[in-house]
Amino acid sequence: MIAQRDSVTHATPIGQLFHTKDRVRVFESDTLLREVLEYFSTCAADVVIIARQAINIGILTLKDIVKALQNFGNLLLPVENFMVSPLQTFSFTQSIAEVLDIMRDVAYDKIVVMHEEKVIGVMDHRHLLSQCYTQLAPLIKHEYNLIQSMLGLVGEGEQGLLKLATTDPLTGIGNRRLFEEIFQAHQSLGERYGVSLFLLMFDIDDFKKINDTFGHNVGDSVLKQLVALVSRSIRKSDVFVRWGGEEFAILLSYSDSLKVMEIAEQIRKRIDMHRFETIIHVTCSFGVTQVHPNEGSEKSISRADSALYKAKADGKNSVRLEIL
Question: Looking at 246, 265, 277, 322, which residue is catalytic?
Answer without folding.
Answer: 246
